[in-house]
Amino acid sequence: MKGVAIAAITAMSMGMLTGCGGDKNQDGEEKTEDKVYKIGVVQLVQHGALDQANQGMIDGLKDNGYEEGKNLKIDQQNAQNDQSNLQTIAQQFLSNEVDMIFAIATPAAQVMASATEDIPIIGTAITSFEEANLVQSDEAPGTNVTGTTDMTPVAEQIDLLLQVVPDAKTIGTVYTSSEKNSEVQVAILDEVAAERGLTVVKRTISNVNDIQQATQSLVSEVDAVWLPTDNNVASAMSQVVSITDEAGLVTLGGEESQVLAGATLTYGINFYQIGYNAGVMAAQILDGESVPAEMPIQNPTELKLVINSDAVENIGITIPQELLDQAEMVTTQSN
After folding, report:
1. For position 177, which CATH number holds?
2. Are residues 287 and 251 in the same domain?
3. For residue 105, what pLDDT is reported?
4. pTM for this structure?
């Protein structure tokens, strides 16, 4: 009888636990209030756009129920644009058995994906997940990687540039030859320019130390400058714009933080917003609602016209009133 009573109590207890449960986490386990998830965040390099994306991810998680100090433990790492640092960080995340990895920028995501096929990886500030071989397709990733892109609206940007510099025939650009995201954008630039009868003059760099020479050799050959969302370029925008401003050239930045750093204008994405959207996706995975392999890559949801009034004054140009009426006006912010 005693054995029967114990069995009955055990069965009742299990039934009560089952009845009180329901939601499961990413591992298929019952979610508990005291579960603390370990998140590894790796940012390729420090500059305005990636900093904004990083904060957006954290805020997206927080607004969806996951907050550091409560149910999250976040390990923030910056690779300082060094491949060996990325490898070390990846192994650190694996050793610490993190539950999820946030990878900010294409090289960071590529190294993390090479290190693990099991831990969910949420990427942002990545131009093309497919071109970077991170997913099978944007619609159905089929891997442990998903996230949000920073694909630049190149055609719209060139049309904007031509509204400001209508007589332009030659467009210059500077980008990192080893950055896949930059190669993708410049390939689109070539197509767009050809359709509009424009010539593209390119200068490639290996690192930020090449920026000054590349930009100086470019400005005498072009009528305006277009820049991709390139991490090395973004890290050295002050050097770029000091040269383009002196040459009197309009510089169209790939995104808002480049304009805040001194570029003339942009019609571009909001890096905070794509980071935030990635954070929301991460929360859905932690909630057990989906898995990376089944979550389509998300494109930017916000595009904005931004004009730097300091840059406009520095190069002495007149912006059409119709653009001024639509734009958010900013001034150059020091680092």
Report:
1. 3.40.50.2300
2. no
3. 95
4. 0.81
